[in-house]
Amino acid sequence: xxxxxxxxxxxxxxxxxxxxxxxxxxxxxxxxxxxxxxxxxxxxxxxxxxxxxxxxxxxxxxxxxxxxxxxxxxxxxxxxxxxxxxxxxxxxxxxxxxxxxxxxxxxxxxxxxxxxxxxxxxxxxxxxxxxxxxxxxxxxxxxxxxxxxxxxxxxxxxxxxxxxxxxxxxxxxxxxxxxxxxxxxxxxxxxxxxxxxxxxxxxxxxxxxxxxxxxxxxxxxxxxxxxxxxxxxxxxxxxxxxxx
Length: 244
Ligand SMILES: NC(=O)c1ccc[n+]([C@@H]2O[C@H](COP(=O)([O-])OP(=O)(O)OC[C@H]3O[C@@H](n4cnc5c(N)ncnc54)[C@H](O)[C@@H]3O)[C@@H](O)[C@H]2O)c1
Hints:
Layout: E1 8-12, H1 17-28, E2 32-37, H2 40-50, E3 54-58, H3 64-78, E4 83-86, H4 101-126, E5 132-137, H5 150-168, E6 173-180, H6 186-191, H7 194-201, H8 212-223, E7 234-237
Helix pairs in contact: 1-8, 3-4, 4-5
The protein binds nicotinamide-adenine-dinucleotide (NAD).
């Protein structure tokens, strides 16, 4: 028996990185999974390898119309919605002086507005079941300062998680945030060289970056009934970074 038997999940930004890892684990645990991403080629490829319990839908998470389309497609294809993982996100490492208003609005829309839209429309569908779990991927930079723009959005995701959890508790819908440290995905490999990442790992109490699969286990816990009494809470998975 899987931990997600008979559950239907949407995972955003799941064509690669942590989202793809969550999708694989969810399928192995018995879920039906809608993988969404702007990267259609990789998303279709992944869905194909995962079989009939996976469906790829192209989505820009910052578009309200795309959210409505994704929720409707999920209901049409799999009949209901139990779990949403708001995972899609971008980062950039520009200084305060370098960041333009366009940069700022872009990261706001993809990292923050997306979580508001996803929570709003997923909750509507979940209310029909009288239950649901929304897992919002923030960051350790939702707890402590980091890059301007990125940090702001990840703190906001933490706040939205608590506000939505309070509002949705009476509908049996739980909302929690996950705060990863440095995880080995294309996001960090695009931005930094292997040497920089190795150097950075020395500052992590556990002395290494993590693999996406380590985060997937925490996301599975929050998505499943194993976390039935957790809502509005922060789940940190950062090798000790924020304990320093
Ligand atoms: N990797 C880390 O060290 C780390 C640490 C803390 C938090 N996070 C967060 O975890 C989440 C996943 O990160 P990752 O490292 O797997 O990143 P990644 O870059 O490997 O994957 C992100 C995915 O999101 C997709 N995406 C980007 N913009 C999108 C949009 N507008 N609509 C839909 N999809 C879009 C990309 O195509 C990509 O497939 C992000 O929210 C990120 O901020 C990552």
